[in-house]
Amino acid sequence: MANKEIKFVDTNMFLRYFTNDDEKKAQKVRLLFERVSANEEILFTSESVIAEIVYILSSKNLPYKVPREKIRELILSIIRLRSMRLENKDIIIMALDIYSASSIDFEDTVSIAFMETRNIEKIYSYDTDFEKFKKIERIEP
After folding, report:
1. DSSP 137
2. Segment 104-126, tens digit of pLDDT
3. Distance between CA 108 and CA 95 in Å, rounded?
């Protein structure tokens, strides 16, 4: 595995695969993800790419309007592939779980998951959504 070149995968690759809105591109991405699953290729992505995927798939201003639980399932199916790399994968998985079970924005669920994994109980924020979590005390400066 040390000889394999790591490549970054961007938002639009995931979107083509998840939405199949361009069948030819979706098929190519499916084959790419099959190679990643078979450990034939190594991909890396970022938290910002995951956040953008969630935003686009859930946006009411775009044609997709995918339910939260389905978004969670789609993203988990890819980030759990054998050779898919993502920093803080455990935090993203926890954030997706929180996101799918709440009405909180994904970006905030990432903060909540980060806080939980670091045993941080207080957050400076004007966003009252954080008050929905009993383990978090929202404070203002």
Report:
1. E
2. 999 999 999 999 999 999 999 99
3. 8
Token pair of 36, please?
């990643």
| Alpha helix (H) residue ranges in 8-126 | 11-19, 23-37, 47-58, 68-79, 89-100, 106-117
- Beta strands 84-86 and 122-124 are unpaired
- For 53-72, write each residue's pLDDT tens digit: 999 999 988 889 999 999 99
Q: How many CB atoms lie within 10 A of CB 111?
A: 19
Q: 88, 47 in Cβ contact below 8 A?
A: yes
Write out the H or E segment, with its range, that includes residue 42: strand 42-45
Cα 110 from Cα 96, distance rounded (Å): 8
**Residue 8 three-state SS:** strand
Q: Residue 94 forms beta bridges with which residues?
A: none
Taking CA atoms, 64 is separated from 17, 71, 96, 123, in Å, by 13, 11, 18, 33
The predicted pLDDT at position 2 comes to 53
User: Which 3 state secondary structure label does DSSP give 85?
Assistant: strand
Question: Which residues are registered as beta bridge partners of 122?
Answer: 137
